[in-house]
Amino acid sequence: MSMLSKLMRRFGAPALARTLAPYEPLAASAQDQVRITAIKALQYGQRTLIKIETDAGRVGYGPCGGSGPFAREVIARLEGGRLPHLGLIGKDPLAIQVHFHNMFYAYPQRGRQTRVYSGIDIALWDLAGKILNQPVSRLLGGTFRDEIPLYSHCGSGDFQSREEWQMRAQDLRNDPHGFTAYKIDIHHALGVHMQQYIPSIGPQDARKVRTAYGLAREALGPDIDIIVHCHNELDVPSAIRVAKAI
Predict the structure, then answer these.
(1) Is 223 exposed, middle or buried (0-12, 13-18, 19+ CB in 10 A)?
(2) Which residues have C-beta within 8 Å of that of residue 52, sequence separation ≥ 6?
């Protein structure tokens, strides 16, 4: 989901207009002075970055899902497909709301191409920040915080073993990055493969969950936050059962 669509979902259109109010005057002085010259997809490993180039030498980057060839195919359709006039090349990169509308409302949604549009949308905001010499947070209404807490992942192994949890917790506490929160996956607690499990769990599985997260709390102590990650694996009754067990 793109940055703008997340804001729209959270605040609604009227509130969003107020949120983006700082952007309009900041962008006004630089409108129609820069043109998009190319949109590229750069794949590295299993990830892909959208790169937007301009005639001013400024570039913007935005992450997107899918492979590089798939992203390039979507970009080609956007620029030269059924509605080529909605493409971005040759246009002002600061007209972000116009480009957002043309990408997200002129084409079917929930298809895989949406992830590429989201990467383009993020790259446009990145580019706007560079053109206007402003942090994107200011363009979107202001900075709420200067720091955010980060979490890391807990490794695999036998989650029913107190001895393993003691060793695992020691390794996590010794991590030089200083994380104070760890995500513990429920499939490890149940001893199954991720997302290869029925959505309903019974009392025996609930006891496994209770034991695993109880041992995690005992080993990690009270100062480490524990995140329960379920990967959409549970139906509602089972999710309630897990919540009560934990």
Answers:
(1) exposed
(2) 36, 38, 39, 40, 59, 60, 61, 62, 88, 93, 120, 123, 124, 127
- Measured distance between the N- and C-terminal CA atoms of the chain, rounded to whole angstroms: 31
What torsion do the CA atoms of 161, 167, 172, 174 make, to the nearest 10 degrees? 170
Q: Which of 5, 49, 7, 50 is nearest to 137 (CA)?
A: 7
Number of CB atoms found within 10 A of residue 40's CB: 15
Q: At what angle do helices 3-11 and 113-132 cross, to 10 degrees?
A: 90
- The backbone torsions φ and ψ at residue 10, rounded to the nearest 5 degrees and listed phi first, read -75, -45
DSSP helix/strand/coil, 184: strand
pTM of the model: 0.64
User: Which tokens go with 103?
Assistant: 């990408």
65, β-bridge pairs: none
pLDDT in tens, 79-123: 987 777 888 999 999 999 899 988 888 766 667 888 999 999 999
